[in-house]
Predict the 3D structure of the following.
Amino acid sequence: MKTTRDLLIALARRYAFSDLGALAPTPEIADVCEFGQRLLTLDAEDFNAEARAVPADLRRRARARSMPQTPREQPRGALESLRPAYSLLLEVIAIRWHRRELSPMIATVHIASEYLPLLAFEPDLGHAGDPARWPEGLSAPGSRFGVIGDRECDHTKAEQSATNRTLRVAGEPAEGWRAYFDRQHSQVAGAIGVCVATCRNPCTAMDWIPEEARALLAVRSRTALAFAETPLVRLRHAAPVGHGFGVPSPEEVLDAWDRSRSALDKNEVGSAARKDDGFPLAGLQSVFSAIADAPIVPSTLLADLSEYVVTLLERDA
């Protein structure tokens, strides 16, 4: 017969941080579980929240995946590089898949799709789309980037508003900075991808990137934009996922991903989705890596936190 401790350990190893936190035998374990739940639900605003019960190394690794909450906050976290954030996204997707929590899994895939163009741009920008560090070339003479109402620009009105805001938000107070990230940064990600990959009336906004590098970036960005239109991501919109009904089955998810792999397989970057890389949605981590032009593998942050909770449970038994 399983003991209470055995059941709690089983919850920890299933990443059931919310349930375990409610049953935690000590405040320390409850604190760690609250931290784990924030990671699992991608509550990035709170990754930096005080969690003294969590080992410093785990808190440092979480901070690398968080958005700074003020324009001058250091370190820059996910604005310095999106690669750690995408490794966490992959870990969360895998956990949700194995737990058959398909609604939050598809929501995580949707989040990944929104920022993929910035992941593609990171090698050329030298950062992950930090509004405090945009290159001056975005506003060079002849650039339409951030110009509201320019009918020659391929950006939507919402994207023009977002790109205009991103060029000045680093000078706003913390409240404006946070509001921008809540509502507009993902639109900037899509807009900058359009600039280099699909714009029908190119301006000078991308001239700061050397021509050869720009051609490679265009392929990565085109694949990033295409990912957002795949059947897998559309599962988020085809049914009211996350509203209590219409949740896809595992078979529907796998079918949607198979059709997505076919849709992406149009160039050397998108063809990475066809790789059998051992990920639950085979090829997903490979296509993210191809878009990033750098290896992106699932993190072990949640796994390591889970094992730390197990050590606490065994210590306090």
Summary: Residues 240-244 have pLDDT under 50 and may be disordered.
